[in-house]
Structure formats: C-alpha cells, structure tokens
Amino acid sequence: MIGKHRHLTGLEPLTREEILSVLELATSMKEVLRRPLKKVPTLRGKAVVNLFFEASTRTRTSFETAAKILSADAINWTSSSSSVTKGETLVDTALNIEAMHPDILVIRHPAGGAPELVAQHVSCAVVSAGDGAHEHPTQGLLDLYTLSEHFCAAGGAPAGAAPDFGVLAGKTIAIVGDVSHSRVARSDLHGLTKLGAKVRVCGPPTMIPQGIEAMGAEVHHQLRPAVEGADAVVMLRIQHERIGDPLIPGTREYSKFWGLNERKAAEWLTPSCAILHPGPINRGVELAPEVADGARSVILDQVENGVAVRMAVLYLLAGGAHEAAEGGARA
Amino acid sequence: MTDTVFIEGGRVIDPASGVDGVRTVVVRDGKVAEVAERLERPRDVRAVDARGRWVTPGFLDLHVHLREPGQEYKETVATGARAAAAGGFTAVCAMPNTVPPNDNTSVTELILARARAAGLARVYPVGCISKGMKGEELAEYGELQAAGCVALSDDGRPVASSALMRRALEYARAFDLPLTVHEEDLALVGKGVMHEGPAATRLGLKGIPAASEEVMVARDLALLELTGGRLHIAHLSTAGSVRAVREAKRRGLSVTAEVTPHHLALTDEDVARSRYATAFKMAPPLRSAADRAAVREALADGTIDCIATDHAPHSPVEKDLEFDAAANGVVGLETAFPVGLALVREGVLSERRLVEALTAGPARAFRLPGGSLARGAPADLAVLDPAREWRCEPALFHSKSKNSPWMGATLVGRCTLTLVGGRIVHELAEGGR
Ligand SMILES: [Zn+2]
Ligand SMILES: [Zn+2]
C-alpha cells in the first residue's frame, strides 16, 4: 500500500505525504542498491510480472533489477498491442496473468488508462510503467528524487547524505519538448507541484496540450525565457514519428529553436541548473551530446535512482512492511 | 364493446395543444377520444389511476440505433422497441448504420417487419444519404421513402465530400426528406477519443476539438443556403454549433437540431471522474462545461428543437477495453426522462419545455405524426411518475446492452405506463423495479 492506495497508476491520486513516503523509502533502497552484495530477501517468494505492450528495455530492466535485488521473482511478459487485433483483449490478458497469482503486475501500455482498466480486473497490485500520454509515475518519482539530491548537493549537503525532499519547495523546473505526448511531463507536473515546485512547460504550440495551465504549469513557447532562471530543465525526447503527425516541420528546426546546445546552456542557464532527460536521448535533436554528457547532466543519476524508487514501490505494494527490518530497508 | 381506457387524475402536459393540468384522458379505438377536466366513467371500462403522475404524449426519439440487421447481439428491433416503451417512447427513428446499411428497400422492409412483429413502438427507418454510407454516390431516396423511410442520414460518420452533401440536399428536396447529419471533420478528430481540453490533457487522452464539429455545421449551413431543403443537426454538442444554428434560424434557413441527454447532463470532467470508464465515450464526445451551458440554454430557448437519445447499444466486447480502443456510444432510451427531469430540478428547463422537447419538438422537426394528445390523435402516450426513485441497474434494462453512464446511479423519474395506439406496451408494476 502507498498510503491508502493498492495500486500505483499515477502521481495524480497521491498526496504529498504519500509521495514523500515512497521517496524516503527509496533512500534506504538506494543504500541497498549500492552495497557490494546487492540482494536482500525482503520480497522472497513474491512474483512480479512485467507486462509490456510497448517496447522499453530501459524501464523493464529497471523494474526487473529492482525486483531481483529484493529477491522477488521477475517474469517478463511481452505482448504487442496488436494482440488486440488477434482478438485477445487487454482484459483477457490480465485475467490470464491473474491465473498465475502474481503479487505485482507492472504494466506498460500505449493507451492512457490501461493500468486502471487492468486494476479493475485483477486482485494483485498494479504499477503503471507508463500508459499512453497519461502518466509514468515511477519516472516522476525518480525525477523528484534526482532533483532533490541535486539541490541538496548544490546547497552544500555532504555527498551521499539522504536527500531532504523539502528542498523542492519554491524551485523552478522547466519541462521542454513534446509535452502533449509525454507521460513523463504529466507525472513530473503532478509530483513537482505537490512538493511545492514551480513548473514551466515549453515547446512549440503544437506540442503543448490545451489546458495544461490547469495542472499548474506556466506555458512558454520560446526556450530562453523558459529556461532562464530555472533550477533544473527536463528535456523530453522528441519522437521521430511526431514529425509526420505533423507537430513540427523537422528535427533541424526543432533543435535550432527548442534544443539545448552548449552555447545556449552556457548563456541562459544558471550555473547550478541541472539537466534531466527520461532517455533514450536523440543526441543532436533535443540535447547536444556535449550537454547530455556535460557537468550539468544528472541523466545517469536518474537511471540509478530509478532502480531505488522502483524497489520502494514494489516493496510497498507487495505489502512487505513487517519484513522491513529483515531486509535491511526501513519503512 | 370497444377497448376504452380512462386515465384519471394525472397532470396532463401536452405542449402541442397547450394543456397543462389535471385531466382525464379517454382512449377509445386506439385514439384519444377526450381530454377533459371532469368526466363520468362508465362502469365497464378500464381505469388507470394517474394521480401524482404526468400524462404526456408518447415520446419521439429521432435518433436511435437498433443494430438490426447485422449486430443483433447488441440490440434487435424488438429489444430496442421494448427499451423505448419502457422509457416512455412510443416512436423511434432507426439510424441506417446497420450491417448492411439501410440504403435499400429490403433493409427498410426488414426493419418495419420486425417492428410490426414486436408491436411495441412505432419504428421509423432512416435511410442512408449515400450508398453503403461510403460518401460517394447518392442512395435511392425516392425508393427509400416509398418503403417507409422518413429521413436520410449516414450517421456514425460525416458526409466528407462537400460536393456530395450539396447534391444530397438538392436531391432530397424532390421528396421533402430531411437530412440528419453527424457533424465531424475526421481530419480534425484524428485519433482523438474525448473532448480536447484540460480533462483530456490530464488523462493523457487525445483530444477532439470543438471545431471539428463546428466547421462541418458551418459548411452544411452554407450548403443549405445554396440548395434549400431540410437539414437536421444530429447530437449538436458545442457552443459554436449553437451560435451557428441560432444565426441560421434567424435568417430563416430550414434547419433543426437535437441534443442528447448525456450532452445536456455531463461534461468532459465526468470522463476524468469516471477514470476512463468507456460508458462515457461517445461521438461527439462529452464537451466542456461552457458547451454544456450553451446547449442547455439553446434547448430552453428553442434553438435546439428536441432531445434525442442517440441510443447506441454496445456489448462488453466493444466496451470493456482501453478507452482508446472502445467503441463510441451509450444507450439512452430508458434514462432519458429522469435525466431530463434532473434539468427541470436544476432550473434549466421548464416541465413544459422538457415534455415539448421529447414530444412535439421532434414530431415537428421530422414532420412525424404523434407528439400530441389532441382529440382524434393516435393514443400514443406515456404515464410518468416524476417522483419515483430507482437505481439504474443492468437487470432493469430492457435494452440488450447496458453501456450507460448512469449505470449504478440513483435516478428520479420513471415511466410507469406506455400506450401505443391505445394498446398498453409497457406497464411498471406498482412499487415494481
Ligand atoms: Zn452520430
Ligand atoms: Zn447516432
């Protein structure tokens, strides 16, 4: 359980306290992850099924790693969403998996709301690993974690100290790119605003969805005012298939106006501004390679924190609270 | 002796003949024989105690999908007519997007034969605008009308070609048939699945802009001005469409419009509240609160002529899916009255206007018989209990399909008795469910 929730389908339903409880647990999980012997028996005997209707090696591997460190059995079930055209519906698939008695079902699906539909039909816990353009809650959590860590370090906290998540209050985060198709942007927005940060979204008007202001975002169409003075910038992946949509005329013009290169970063960003990216990066489109690999980039921290956050989520939803001490993680 | 029924003590609301008050309605030989304040009842006739009830003309629905032929697992003419009778509807117009579509007289005749066999509600078939609903060639309007079609539509899809739409309006004039149009610019709709706005943005669902309807309404009004003829806008849903129709009516164009109970009652925020429940997915989608306010006002002031349910039965096969993949449409015949009555309680509509929008309004729009309790009219009428509370449950539905956004809700107002041609086609047991 995360607070009163049996499932994690998004950050929108979570309260600030519920989000904080996951992040705080992730701190202990990160410590486990960094041990030389990274295996604790916390979720021994539990089964986690990764049900991916959309290819995402990164996210799937991250969940799989998280499950294995906690000694859960991780089973990967890859299914193409075209199985729907073969007559098997998502509900059919869910019921088939249900029959195998998993404890947690991690689901990635191209349709918004798919994890919620599955949650209505199965008795195990459901974690969204990204649904359409709706939410990618664990990515949102890992971004909150990474940002907090970065701001604490920038504020002089000793390296390796547990981050204080209160540090996000009052910070300004810019999210740049195809916000309309981005589940990451939505989860970041819910999480950041709940923890008191200010969020700017930026992109060509074709990539900014109607009414995003109602989610607490300040909308920009030009990059410079969006990133100037920001404490961090989240650069979103520009999917090549959007070019035919057509949301932008081409990647060349996009990178010129909305991409971040070394010169813009040097001139427009504050010295301590961090750069995040959910990956995989289109180098040279949204981010120049020098920026992606530069000193401001916390992209690899995101990957590491992703495992810790997912360990925390699996742990909470598998209901292993009383086994906490044994596993070396505190609840 | 003849079959005579005295419906006594009910509040007769018949906007067509200007009656609103406690009256006795006498039905004899299938017709309305008398509507009067005080009448002596002979001993040997059937009496219906309608005290505390409304007695209205039977409702007319210009827009239902009965799914027969071709998709009888969702609904048949008989089950649809049964649902109509249970909802107080004595006449329904059956949209032609069956399989095969009603673009030829054999389909029309089949629907009429099934309706006759069921004997529950009057079913008026609507023929196709284009052959096979492909939007390429005109269907045979004269033949369709001769077989019994009362209007033309490619409902379910728009007529994409402006040129074909022009010819359809022109050609239909020869037969004085109205065209009832589903207004949607499919290029603007794209892969959209709900109204474009903050709710869609939050849910991460692709949006359908209000303009996708409005550009087509504007186009068809321009074509109507060019050609003459009769245009009926099906399930009008946006403030912009309302403005266009209001202005066209002011200029004297022969345009009428309908709005569904769900567009009057719900908004895109209800999709978000329902957490992707596909019983909230339809075309046009549930719109914004501002659009809803506009269609409510337009129904109240007569810019929108009538309420039509767009009763669209779907089975769990089409609905128990991801929101993106689920079929559009909800059933509506059995919930239209309580949903309308809620608007009366909210002060949106007067009682008289609600009844008019379900009776005389649709009858006038398609020039159909019925919609009035004038002496000599066929005795198509409904007895309604405006205070009856009931829980909308699957088991209570007569429709084969249960895809209603009100499933599980407690509704107020229920039809207790329906007569078609003087015959009782629906009767709710006293205290019955
Ligand atoms: Zn339609
Ligand atoms: Zn329809």
TrEMBL record, chain A:
Its EC number is 2.1.3.2. Carbamoyl phosphate binds at residues 58-59, 108, 136, 139, 279-280. Keywords: Pyrimidine biosynthesis, Transferase. Transmembrane segments: none annotated. It holds the Pfam family OTCace_N. PROSITE patterns: CARBAMOYLTRANSFERASE. One of its GO terms (biological process) is amino acid metabolic process. It is an enzyme of class 2 (transferase). The keyword Hydrolase does not apply. L-aspartate binds at residues 86, 183, 237. GO terms for molecular function: amino acid binding; aspartate carbamoyltransferase activity. GO terms for cellular component: cytosol. Residues 6-149 form the Aspartate/ornithine carbamoyltransferase carbamoyl-P binding domain. Catalyzes the condensation of carbamoyl phosphate and aspartate to form carbamoyl aspartate and inorganic phosphate, the committed step in the de novo pyrimidine nucleotide biosynthesis pathway. Belongs to the aspartate/ornithine carbamoyltransferase superfamily. ATCase family. Heterododecamer (2C3:3R2) of six catalytic PyrB chains organized as two trimers (C3), and six regulatory PyrI chains organized as three dimers (R2). This is Aspartate carbamoyltransferase. It comes from Anaeromyxobacter diazotrophicus. The gene is pyrB.
Automatic annotation (TrEMBL), chain B:
Zn(2+) 1 binds at residues 63, 65, 155, 310. SUPFAM superfamilies: Composite domain of metallo-dependent hydrolases, Metallo-dependent hydrolases. Substrate binds at residues 65-67, 97, 314. One of its GO terms (biological process) is purine nucleobase catabolic process. Residues 52-238 form the Dihydroorotase catalytic domain. Pathway: Pyrimidine metabolism; UMP biosynthesis via de novo pathway; (S)-dihydroorotate from bicarbonate: step 3/3. GO terms for molecular function: allantoinase activity; dihydroorotase activity; zinc ion binding. Keywords: Hydrolase, Metal-binding, Pyrimidine biosynthesis, Zinc. Zn(2+) 2 binds at residues 155, 182, 235. PROSITE patterns: DIHYDROOROTASE_1, DIHYDROOROTASE_2. GO terms for cellular component: cytoplasm. It catalyses: (S)-dihydroorotate + H2O = N-carbamoyl-L-aspartate + H(+). Binds 2 Zn(2+) ions per subunit. Belongs to the metallo-dependent hydrolases superfamily. DHOase family. Class I DHOase subfamily. This is Dihydroorotase. It comes from Anaeromyxobacter diazotrophicus.
